[in-house]
Amino acid sequence: MELIDGKAIAEVVKQEIAAEVAGIVARGGKHPHLAAILVGHDGGSETYVAAKVKACEVCGFKSTLIRYENDVTEEELLDRVRQLNEDEDIDGFIVQLPLPRHISEQKVIETIDHRKDVDGFHPINVGRMSIGLPCYVSATPNGILELIKRYNIETTGKKCVILGRSNIVGKPMAMLMMQKAYPGDATVTVCHSRSRDLIKECREADILIAALGQPHFVKADMVKEGAVVIDVGTTRVPSEKTRSGFKLTGDVLFEEVAPKCSYITPVPGGVGPMTIVSLMKNTLLAGKKEIYT
Ligand code: GUN
Would you tell me how many other CB atoms lie within 10 Å of the CB of residue 182? Predict the structure, then answer.
């Protein structure tokens, strides 16, 4: 069994990005500029956005954090999004989700100019991704592809089972694993809460990607000997052992499953750090105007 060290790969990729940015700046170009809008004080969102701002620093990007309280109106937020769309100094921006209930996330996403949508959530980017056109691919699936590439994991002709059908992870992951490319060329099955014979499907998987958000859902008897297991779960479970008062818990019962795997991602330190790096990669592409001019 080989552990997929997302933390280490993420550091390497950030250094690669920083070197490229240094080259751009040396040739008279500008530092890529990412803006993030954060509404309210949700603990998870605070942590993620702080990590994104920190990663920008490491990569040599400029970053701008825009904060609103929970009572911001939808129109106020949409106006700020429209301003960022027009702001020539901003290469890309994100609106951290979830948003308060009185604000339509979909409306916010669709108001973002798809050319600056480095989260890859806008329907134009999702649509282009699904037919294999250049676009911003959302961070978690792209981070997983990067791990598969860096560990030279074979995907062609493999049976890939994805647990979860979210718009952010499950669905795009399925599209990417079936695309005519490497990583890809896999036979993909998507399982969800209404799937019959989910355990049987999992047992047949050469590559199992767990993105349900249910701690320790995947047990040893659901995994084939020699499978590659990618754990996307990051549920914050209360814990007295940590300073923060919670422990990030994956969808896979690691101790039990790991001995059966050829490769497995840990939680934390697997997929998580790669999602932030994927956002950095998209921001670099935005700065270089590589996808949309
Ligand atoms: N909330 C959880 N993951 C993400 C993400 O990748 N982007 C944004 N904007 N919000 C999130």
Answer: 14
User: At how many degrees (to 10) do helices 6-26 and 139-150 cross?
Assistant: 100
Say what the pTM is.
0.96
Q: Is 83 annotated as catalytic? A: no
- As a whole number of angstroms, the distance between CA 63 and CA 33 comes to 6
d(CA 142, CA 225): 26
pLDDT above 70 as % of the chain: 100
The pick from 39, 65, 96, 166 for probing ligand 1's pocket by mutation, whose C-beta has the most ligand atoms within 8 angstroms, reads 96
Catalytic, 52? Answer yes
User: pLDDT under 70 in the chain at which residues?
Assistant: none
Beta carbon of 119 within 6 Å of any ligand 1 atom: yes
Residue nearest to atom 1 of ligand 1 (CA): 97
- pLDDT score of 244: 86
For the beta sheet containing 187-191, the strands, ordered from the edge strand earlier in sequence to the opposite edge, are 2-3, 263-264, 228-231, 207-210, 159-163, 187-191
Q: Is the CB–ligand 1 distance for residue 169 below 6 Å?
A: no
8-state DSSP, 194: T
